[in-house]
């Protein structure tokens, strides 16, 4: 990147803690986690109310309450992005305005899902949201969940909007990402941990990571080493992180479930179900090995 990333490099897609019965937010736990993730400099900023934050099963009022509580906990200097995606453009605009009013520094806006709009409609959706607010927008491209890819040509046009400044990239197409990075000023953040280093190496801005809930220092260390010019070290640290990434993100359970299991951070809301004991033990063993390896670096 020739200019500093707009929200820092290391962003955590933070979980949303609930009370033991899952009926209410645990705002004290959320504030404590947000402070822990950001106070030591391991995470530059946080993304709230995203997929990892269980946005499909939290109410609009809960989303606002979480954002306000975390803002109060971490203060004004920590970048906070709010997930405001929905399948309904009108509702997305309402969520975007509410998040801006609650103190969000930026908005994470996912492609409308289920209805599978064509590319002109996808573009119009993002422009409609960006026109409605005064804070930057991070476009979230995750076709595996939404059913619709943001085509590179669409991304090029979106980059012309003054408030569309960043992308959370979960498309898994490094060639397309590199081409858009080269032709625009968009800050590309990896949303797939196994691609954090490759995307960064071709000009990406950093990452938005679920794994960072449990391993923020190890996740960040990869980019720190690359920035120092220690590319071999970065590759080695990246390889050490991959076993945990594979278990958390590709072991058959959503990252929300595995992150909460590792943190002991309360229940998930249905339709999600908690990890079983064997899975939890495996996750904790992998994290223990990773943490031990950090002291050997």
From TrEMBL:
Pathway entry: Amino-acid biosynthesis; L-lysine biosynthesis via DAP pathway; (S)-tetrahydrodipicolinate from L-aspartate: step 3/4
A Pfam family annotated for this UniProt entry: DHDPS
Residue sites binding pyruvate per the record: 52, 208
UniProt catalytic activity: L-aspartate 4-semialdehyde + pyruvate = (2S,4S)-4-hydroxy-2,3,4,5-tetrahydrodipicolinate + H2O + H(+)
Presence of keyword Transit peptide: no
Active site: 140 (proton donor/acceptor), 168 (schiff-base intermediate with substrate)
Superkingdom of origin: Bacteria
SMART domains from the UniProt entry: DHDPS
Site annotation Part of a proton relay during catalysis: residues: 51, 114
Enzyme Commission numbers on file: 4.3.3.7
Localisation per UniProt entry: Cytoplasm
Main location: cytoplasm
UniProt keyword annotations, A-Z: Amino-acid biosynthesis, Cytoplasm, Diaminopimelate biosynthesis, Lyase, Lysine biosynthesis, Schiff base
CDD domains linked: DHDPS
Assembly with partners or alone: Homotetramer; dimer of dimers.
Family statement: Belongs to the DapA family.
Protein function: Catalyzes the condensation of (S)-aspartate-beta-semialdehyde [(S)-ASA] and pyruvate to 4-hydroxy-tetrahydrodipicolinate (HTPA).
HAMAP family listed in its UniProt record: DapA (MF_00418)
Protein name: 4-hydroxy-tetrahydrodipicolinate synthase
Chain's gene name: dapA
């Amino acid at each position: 990147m020739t200019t500093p990333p707009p929200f820092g490099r290391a962003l955590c897609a933070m979980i949303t803690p609930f009370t033991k019965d899952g009926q209410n937010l645990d705002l004290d736990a959320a504030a404590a986690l947000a402070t822990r993730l950001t106070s030591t400099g391991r995470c530059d900023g946080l993304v709230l109310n995203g997929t990892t934050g269980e946005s499909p099963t939290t109410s609009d009022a809960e989303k606002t309450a979480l954002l306000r509580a975390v803002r109060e906990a971490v203060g004004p200097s920590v970048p906070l992005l709010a997930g405001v995606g929905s399948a309904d453009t009108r509702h997305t605009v309402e969520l975007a305005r509410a998040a801006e009013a609650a103190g969000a520094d930026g908005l994470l806006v996912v492609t409308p899902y289920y209805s599978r709009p064509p590319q002109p409609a996808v573009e119009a959706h993002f422009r409609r949201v960006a026109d409605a607010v005064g804070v930057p927008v991070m476009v979230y491209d995750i076709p595996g969940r939404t059913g619709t890819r943001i085509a590179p040509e669409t991304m090029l046009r979106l980059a012309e909007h003054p408030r569309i400044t960043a992308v959370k990239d979960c498309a898994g197409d490094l060639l397309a990402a590199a081409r858009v990075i080269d032709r625009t000023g968009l800050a590309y953040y990896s949303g797939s941990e196994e691609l954090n280093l490759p995307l960064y190496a071709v000009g990406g801005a950093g990452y938005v990571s679920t794994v960072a809930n449990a391993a923020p220092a190890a996740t960040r260390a990869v980019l720190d080493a690359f920035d120092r010019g220690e590319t071999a070290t970065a590759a080695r640290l990246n390889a050490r992180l991959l076993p945990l990434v594979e278990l958390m993100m590709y072991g058959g359970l959503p990252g929300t479930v595995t992150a909460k299991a590792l943190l002991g951070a309360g229940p998930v809301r249905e339709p999600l179900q908690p990890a079983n004991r064997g899975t939890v033990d495996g996750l904790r063993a992998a994290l223990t090995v990773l943490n031990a390896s950090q002291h050997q670096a």
